[in-house]
Amino acid sequence: MAKRLIPSLNRVLIEKIVPPSKTTAGILLPEKSSQLNSGKVVAVGPGALDKSGNLIPVSVKEGDTVLLPEYGGTQIKLNDKEFHLYRDEDILGTLHD
Amino acid sequence: MAKRLIPSLNRVLIEKIVPPSKTTAGILLPEKSSQLNSGKVVAVGPGALDKSGNLIPVSVKEGDTVLLPEYGGTQIKLNDKEFHLYRDEDILGTLHD
Amino acid sequence: MAKRLIPSLNRVLIEKIVPPSKTTAGILLPEKSSQLNSGKVVAVGPGALDKSGNLIPVSVKEGDTVLLPEYGGTQIKLNDKEFHLYRDEDILGTLHD
Amino acid sequence: MAKRLIPSLNRVLIEKIVPPSKTTAGILLPEKSSQLNSGKVVAVGPGALDKSGNLIPVSVKEGDTVLLPEYGGTQIKLNDKEFHLYRDEDILGTLHD
Amino acid sequence: MAKRLIPSLNRVLIEKIVPPSKTTAGILLPEKSSQLNSGKVVAVGPGALDKSGNLIPVSVKEGDTVLLPEYGGTQIKLNDKEFHLYRDEDILGTLHD
Amino acid sequence: MAKRLIPSLNRVLIEKIVPPSKTTAGILLPEKSSQLNSGKVVAVGPGALDKSGNLIPVSVKEGDTVLLPEYGGTQIKLNDKEFHLYRDEDILGTLHD
Amino acid sequence: MAKRLIPSLNRVLIEKIVPPSKTTAGILLPEKSSQLNSGKVVAVGPGALDKSGNLIPVSVKEGDTVLLPEYGGTQIKLNDKEFHLYRDEDILGTLHD
């Protein structure tokens, strides 16, 4: 049975975007041609409380494409797929076309 | 006589879920087929005070299935069973079917 | 003359519970059969002030049986008996039958 | 397709200014003649919340020329160009002619 | 001329109590028979300000017998006698007969 | 073209005062005759926000002669001259004749 | 020309008191007969702001004799005399006859 994770506090569940290592026409791309460490937001937590007790909602939302730091995040396996959990403040920004 | 633990502050008593190493039909599962580090919430503390003196209740409740970090938590033995204590903020999220 | 200690701030004076190494019937118990690190609360401090200047009373009271962390606490000798001092926030929980 | 990054919190996207190693007349400049580590602000985040929950906007704006610390910042590659992300408080100052 | 020290902030001037190594009847006490690290409060500072600017007075007073931590404190020599300075929050408790 | 730096937050741009190694009459001064690490304030930032969101202006002003700590500060080169950037709170004091 | 230092924030300018190594009658004192690390307050800063933005004035004043910690403080040379700068909170207390 598929499991669904609701992240706690201001944690964000991310599915990393793996860059294709070949073009659709079958041409091999040189390694590391795209080093952008990005991912898709799959689920977000309810937010965390600040020092004054106010709830600070998570700044990204489900479906956002985000830029991730090179290090950090917690790798988890859910329904045989690999995901990562990041704190909202560790997400570097959102990517737009 | 069975002992019952009431965790202090925002501590959460967890009974870890051990994944079966064999299917019910007797087929041996490859090791680490399921690396999800999860547990059942057995008891929660009354919550902790924030810097302004407000009580912040624990975000999970008895019976919740939670995703746990790979490291951390305090292992304790109660009534000959193994449990773990985690701070509420260290719980990564709740798992739902 | 017996001395009495009134702990300062949110310190808690604990007398550790040493598990019997033999049953009352004289049967030797295997070592570490009971690893529960627990103690009896002997005296509590008046509480500590939070950052806003409010007094936060100690959450345990004299006579409570408490679960203690494996490390930490200050060992002291009072009237030829061994006691330990813990900060209230380091006590893991209270044990009840 | 060109991607656009909107930095999170008080992060600032910078395109570093590479000093010319030759004058326009073709004279080779001695190495390190200009050690000023500066960059152009390409995009800024919405600002970060302070401990009282107030939004602190980023102090620099798109188009500013800024002085950068020698260490720190996160290098990223976007649309085949190299950029750096800095926290607003790590920018040393703005440069003006 | 004898000098008097008024401790600053929440510092407490302590004269350590040295346990007798012989009983009054002349019987040699085994070493470390009394490991209680205690002292007499000689002078206290005016108290320290908390983060909200309120003065928090020192919790012990001149003449109190206090239990001291094994490490910490600043040794000073005043009028050829040895004293120790402790921060109020480092004093473990007060001792009473 | 000469560049002007406006420091960010509570940063202070300093031009260090180099003590003459000879008197004007040509007599060689012994090394380290003057070890005072001082500088001239060239530019100051707008100030930094405290934890309550209030702007704290920089305590020194352009033209002040300041005493600097032996370590710390960020060396930069501007218009072929060497300057140092210090945080306002790292400046030890102002010097007056 | 003699220079005068006005310490910044809650810094205190101290001239250390060097104990005489001979009595006035010419008798050599044994070394370290007086280990009291004390000094005279020469100048004090205007005070530092606490987290709520209130100015906390320096607790000692010009002319006070103060007890100093064994380590810490910044040594400076002013008008060919040696001084030390301490933060107000590092001064252990004031000495009175």
UniProtKB/TrEMBL annotation, chains A, B, C, D, E, F, G:
<dbReference type="GO" id="GO:0005739">
    <property type="term" value="C:mitochondrion"/>
</dbReference>
<comment type="subunit">
    <text>Forms stable complexes with CPN60 in the presence of ATP.</text>
</comment>
<keyword id="KW-0143">Chaperone</keyword>
<dbReference type="GO" id="GO:0044183">
    <property type="term" value="F:protein folding chaperone"/>
</dbReference>
<protein>
    <recommendedName>
        <fullName>Protein groES</fullName>
    </recommendedName>
</protein>
<dbReference type="GO" id="GO:0005524">
    <property type="term" value="F:ATP binding"/>
</dbReference>
<dbReference type="InterPro" id="IPR020818">
    <property type="entry name" value="Chaperonin_GroES"/>
</dbReference>
<dbReference type="InterPro" id="IPR011032">
    <property type="entry name" value="GroES-like_sf"/>
</dbReference>
<comment type="function">
    <text>Seems to function only as a co-chaperone, along with cpn60, and in certain cases is essential for the discharge of biologically active proteins from cpn60.</text>
</comment>
<dbReference type="GO" id="GO:0051087">
    <property type="term" value="F:protein-folding chaperone binding"/>
</dbReference>
<dbReference type="GO" id="GO:0051082">
    <property type="term" value="F:unfolded protein binding"/>
</dbReference>
<dbReference type="InterPro" id="IPR037124">
    <property type="entry name" value="Chaperonin_GroES_sf"/>
</dbReference>
<comment type="similarity">
    <text>Belongs to the GroES chaperonin family.</text>
</comment>
<dbReference type="Pfam" id="PF00166">
    <property type="entry name" value="Cpn10"/>
</dbReference>
<dbReference type="GO" id="GO:0046872">
    <property type="term" value="F:metal ion binding"/>
</dbReference>
